[in-house]
Amino acid sequence: MNNITIHNKTLPIPSFFQVFNYGGGAGDKTRELVYARLSGDTPALLNYYYINNEYTHLFQSSYFNNILSFNKIGDALNYVTEQIITKDCCFYKESNIKPYDFNQKVILLDSGSSNIVKYVAKDCNYDIEKFKIKIIEHAINYYNFANKLKVDMVVAFDLGGKYTFKDDEANNIELQNFYRQLNKKEINHLLLEETIKYLKQNQGFYPYVLATVHGDTPHNYGNYTKEILKLENSFNYQFFGFALGGIASSKNIDSSWYDGIKLPKNKKAKDATLPARAINIVRRIVGNRYMHALGCGGYPNIPMNYYCGASSFDAASPARRVGDGNGLSTSYIFSPRAAIPPKAKFSKYFVGGYNVDNSMRKENFDYISLYDIDNNLPLCGCDACNQIKDITELKLLYSQQANNAESFYYAKQLMNIHAILQHKKLCQVVSSYNTMKDFCNNYSNELNRALLFIYNQIVST
């Protein structure tokens, strides 16, 4: 699949979507919006749960209270960013980085429904039949929201592939019993059917819609995909593409996902197996249609994702790795190792990847503690790296948290965006090769050799 145009904006194939979770956290999440210019036209993934203040949550921002007064999601994000800069002063003044016009980005909206479910369940007094009715109403609200704000693309509303228990959810017996009683496959199928009915009634619906795919085994994943095609045929409607869920983590998955595959010793390559196999399964059924692999954009995943058929993917790993750093660590970035207290946790810097001229870097890909990064490590030449002259300057910015917190946050965002742009660069590099073999042979290293070993088995099963 070549690059595509969505609402007069170019979306490269493949594309890495940067996750913007402002409203889902403080500190770093706030600054992601402020420094968006550095990631440029990198497409964005937003979480409806975090930006729609109908749902009360810990980090919700009052700046989103009147979000539906805007006609475009980009305008809303521009407004919020301006408030963060002018009212909250959450930016590093010496950076001279101006706000970015979010209308230039392709924006994908995901529902964050795994968080919404608990609210609906409580409102229904944990009654399954009432829940079925109410969850459809929430799905319609989601689509109306996306349409009003002219979001470019939306992931169809579903129950989500898993639940992350926060606050006191794990101790809520009624909620836990409710989760156990839910027939998620039945309700997800119902939600897809109601989605098609809604879209048929709203012919001018603005966003491109991705049908969600689920399944706990390869067999069930394929069957679920076939059921979506049957729904399309029965309603004479075709989704723009598919959003593949529940395959971002290999924890607690059914062992059948690895049937017929001999895994290499390289752990990073092993972890890329699950999403690649799921993508391959769906591609064989739906052909050359758009596919987004939710949460599966981790750096080692990208080559197999693309060559198995994915059009795009996202991952929060760049932000999470810089988020590993705490304020205490900033006082010890230049200290002897023996002086560093155990509670001091450093942000992690992306090493490896490619330089701006597409030449492969000498380091093996990894996220390394900023403390352990060699001060003489050459910069890659991306827009984030161009804001500093060397690693020593980055560490110096990081170290100033006690006197200037924004210096600390700025350093972390430079690290975050450097990693994001490395993911984007890898997408550009793989797209220039017709086959996985050609790419891996031209950029041969331990990781790529292991990925090719797995890929050859996946496509032959």
General description of the model:
This protein has 461 residues and is an alpha/beta fold. It folds into 2 domains: 309 residues, TIM Barrel (Alpha-Beta Barrel); 101 residues, no CATH class. It is 42% helix and 11% strand. It has 16 helices and 12 strands. The strands form 3 sheets. An 8-stranded parallel barrel has the order 3-4-5-6-7-8-9-10, surrounded by 6 helices. Strands 1-2 form a two-stranded antiparallel sheet. It has a two-stranded antiparallel ribbon with strand order 11-12. The protein is globular. The model has no long low-confidence stretch (mean pLDDT 95).
The CATH superfamily of the largest domain is identified as Aldolase class I
Globular, elongated, flat, extended or rod-shaped: what is the shape? globular
Q: What order do the helices and strands follow? A: EEEHEHHEHHEHHEHEHHEHEHEEHHHH
Low-pLDDT parts are: none
**Strand arrangement in the largest pleated sheet:** 3-4-5-6-7-8-9-10
Instruction: Please tell me the total number of domains.
Output: 2
Instruction: Profile the largest sheet.
Output: 8 strands, parallel, barrel
From the 3D coordinates, which CATH architecture of the largest domain would you assign? Alpha-Beta Barrel
Tell me, rounded to a whole number, the average pLDDT. Answer: 95
Strand content: 5-15%
